[in-house]
Design goal:
- The chain is α+β, with helices and mostly antiparallel strands.
- Helix content is 30%, strand content 12%.
- It has a domain of 76 residues: 2-Layer Sandwich (Alpha-Beta Plaits), CATH 3.30.70.330.
- The strands form two sheets. It has a four-stranded antiparallel sheet with strand order 1-2-6-3, with helices on one face.
- The protein is extended.
- The termini are far apart.
- Keywords: Mitochondrion, Ribonucleoprotein, Ribosomal protein.
């Protein structure tokens, strides 16, 4: 006998059937492609999670050592420009371990730089100061070392153009130093050169041509002249 409507609803639910062959879940092809096989480390190699004491640390130098050309020294000696915090033991260890150069003795000294002024606008009108000192070390080598001969042909490095630029800069600095108002006055040399070029053009010594003709950029006009249905030449343009 049903007492309430809730009991009737519960009894109306059919009993669960027993599943004899449950379906098996198969992964999709996309799931299989996303699974990656872990790659094992080579034998004797430590991973990134290994302690610091078990790793092989590589320390690269954070300083610069420059070999100085010293023709006045013997072949048994070499001079280097080193940082101020480098000592003799560091220099000996550096040469032996990095370059395999045997060292017998090392001498060092600190060279003070001359007192100069801080330049402002290319003029030495600033405050006086002493630049940072330089440290040099002279090393006695086990085996002699001979510097290679200096190249005589410097055309590969454009030495002539470099020297001409240096001479021009030196001349400009000298002229600006002599005349404080040089920037406010016109360039007399450039003005004279423009005047001479204008006189030559007036005397028809050199035929003037526009830049696009000098560079050969008038190919469009030449193509138009070769075609049958060409556009007539303008009055201001001379036919080639």
């Amino acid at each position: 006998m049903l007492n309430t409507a809730g009991d009737a609803a519960i009894r109306a639910i059919p009993p669960q059937q027993k599943i004899t062959n449950p379906p098996t879940l198969r992964p999709s092809p996309t799931t299989l492609t996303m699974v990656r096989k872990t790659i094992g480390l080579p034998k004797g190699m430590t991973g990134p999670t290994a302690p610091l004491s078990e790793r092989k640390q590589i320390y690269l130098p954070e300083f610069t050592i420059a070999l100085v050309r010293t023709p006045f020294l013997s072949t048994r000696y070499a001079q280097f420009r080193v940082p101020l915090n480098l000592n003799k033991l560091d220099m000996r260890d550096y040469l032996e371990r990095v370059y395999g150069v045997g060292v017998l003795s090392v001498r060092s000294y600190v060279q003070l730089q001359p007192i100069t002024r801080i330049t402002r606008d290319g003029r030495n009108m600033g405050a006086w100061r002493r630049p940072k000192s330089e440290k040099r070390m002279t090393v006695e080598l086990r085996e002699p070392f001979v510097w290679p001969e200096e190249p005589t042909d410097l055309s590969r490095w454009e030495k002539e153009s470099w020297d001409s630029g240096e001479r021009f800069q030196t001349q400009m600095r000298r002229e600006n130093r002599q005349r404080g108002d040089a920037a406010e006055k016109p360039d007399e040399k450039m003005r004279k050169a423009f005047k001479e070029q204008a006189e030559e053009l007036k005397q028809d010594k050199e035929a003037w041509r526009p830049t696009w003709k000098v560079l050969g950029l008038d190919f469009a006009h030449r193509e138009m002249a070769n075609t049958k249905n060409s556009v007539p030449w303008p009055k201001w343009m001379k036919k080639p």
